[in-house]
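Hi all, posting the design record for the shared folder.

TITLE: backbone redesign
STEP: 1 of 1
STRUCTURE INPUT:
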């Protein structure tokens, strides 16, 4: 067997070069979906590199969703990344506790705001930000950013994060993201061809050690969730935020993106992880969790240089956010009745999460003490088996594996949405979950 027969023409002397060679072979079709890659030891011997170098190359490809490990069956070329997405499954006959949606009964009624939107048309070349929304948004974000911000309006948080990364990174650049993390962030990073570097999350937020390790790997951007981290519900503590500010002070040009998606619904204070001397930063606040997912708008507060580059991708006549949508968002955010409904929603989510958490605890099942629309539940067993058992009992839930950036081992966590369940339904869910855990292998 020749060298090429064994390695398919894979070349390189470093992990990055080997991973890039495999990526090129996949893109050219020389390695098809399902193709087996050479074993690590065989590849290392053929290329004359250390075994750990080959391991690192395969790990990089796995994080990018290009290959998948199958234990003794080896490493195979994966299909197109199939990152799960948020949302309900209307085709399912099961009771959906997987969707992660806000409660529609607490989303403000837009009818009154719509009636007040009559105004002159907006023409090409005008400001891309509605002046009234800009004034309101600056007051909203100013206390939570390290210096006077420049504002940008995007078509939601997903759009903001994607554009922010695109103006700062090129293909194969490393970006640190939370693990477990937000489905949309994982999907955005993988589809754009960036190299995801996982950072661990505990009850106080991203851990200092994992962020330090990511910086040592040369990440050019970091995406974090300061409150109600999805899926764990964690919010940054004051102690953790201070430690991260100290760490990041030595890396002022790393772009730090804070996705504060829960903002007005949170009972926790916002804590920044960058100080006044940081040069590249952005705070993203969408309105979808409290004004509804269809209100696809986010406020981005950033340093002037980041805003300038972001503006190149949001210009009048191409992709700016409709002023009608901006005015509608502002009309609701400035309306006392709408804000009262948002406050009621905040209390509702917190109360229902506490109620479900207590019901689970009574059955010996631990759920993280966090915020958000969902609960992060530790089943103590591989989550996929528990999810299958729950399906047999009429429930549709999400296994924690779906949120993993680095799937080194099966997750034992489930993410469930329980705020829409009344007391009886929460009780049934707790009982069925306990039975599912007992029955799972």
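Okay, here is what came back for every position:
SEQUENCE:
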């Amino acid at each position: 067997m020749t060298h090429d027969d064994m390695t398919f023409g894979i070349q390189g002397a470093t992990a990055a070069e080997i991973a890039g060679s495999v990526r090129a072979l996949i893109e050219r079709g020389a390695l098809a979906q399902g193709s087996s890659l050479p074993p690590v030891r065989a590849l290392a011997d053929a290329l004359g590199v250390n075994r750990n170098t080959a391991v690192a190359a395969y790990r990089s490809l796995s994080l990018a969703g290009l290959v998948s490990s199958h234990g003794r069956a080896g490493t195979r070329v994966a299909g197109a990344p199939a990152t799960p997405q948020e949302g309900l499954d209307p085709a399912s006959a099961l009771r959906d506790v997987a969707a992660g949606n806000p409660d529609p009964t607490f989303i403000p009624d837009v009818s009154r705001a719509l009636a007040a939107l009559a105004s002159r048309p907006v023409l090409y070349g005008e400001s891309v930000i509605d002046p009234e929304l800009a004034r309101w948004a600056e007051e909203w974000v100013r206390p939570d950013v390290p210096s006077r911000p420049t504002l940008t309006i995007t078509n939601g948080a997903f759009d903001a994060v994607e554009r922010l990364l695109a103006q700062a990174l090129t293909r194969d650049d490393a970006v640190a993201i939370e693990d477990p993390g937000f489905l949309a962030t994982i999907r955005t990073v993988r589809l754009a061809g960036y190299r995801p570097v996982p950072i661990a999350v505990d009850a106080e937020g991203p851990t200092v050690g994992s962020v330090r390790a990511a910086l040592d790997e040369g990440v050019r951007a970091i995406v974090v969730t300061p409150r109600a981290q999805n899926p764990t519900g964690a919010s940054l503590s004051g102690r953790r935020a201070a430690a991260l500010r100290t760490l990041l002070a030595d890396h002022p040009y790393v772009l730090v993106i804070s996705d504060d998606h829960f903002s007005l619904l949170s009972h926790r204070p916002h804590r920044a992880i960058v100080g006044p001397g940081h040069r590249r930063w952005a705070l993203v606040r969408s309105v979808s969790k409290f004004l509804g997912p269809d209100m696809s708008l986010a406020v981005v507060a950033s340093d002037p240089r980041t805003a300038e580059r972001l503006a190149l991708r949001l210009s009048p006549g191409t992709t700016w956010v409709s002023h009608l949508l901006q005015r509608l968002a502002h009309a609701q955010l400035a309306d006392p009745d709408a804000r009262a409904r948002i406050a009621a929603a905040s209390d509702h989510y917190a109360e229902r999460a506490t109620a479900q958490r207590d019901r689970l605890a009574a059955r010996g099942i631990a759920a993280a003490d966090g915020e958000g629309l969902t609960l992060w539940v530790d089943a103590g067993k591989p989550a996929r088996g528990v999810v299958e058992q729950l399906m047999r009992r009429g429930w549709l839930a999400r296994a924690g594996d779906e949120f993993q950036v680095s799937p080194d081992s099966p997750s034992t966590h489930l993410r469930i949405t329980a705020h829409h369940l009344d007391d009886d339904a929460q009780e049934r869910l707790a009982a069925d979950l306990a039975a599912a855990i007992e029955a799972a292998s």
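COMMENT: The chain is about 40% helix and 15% strand.
Let me know if anyone wants the other runs.
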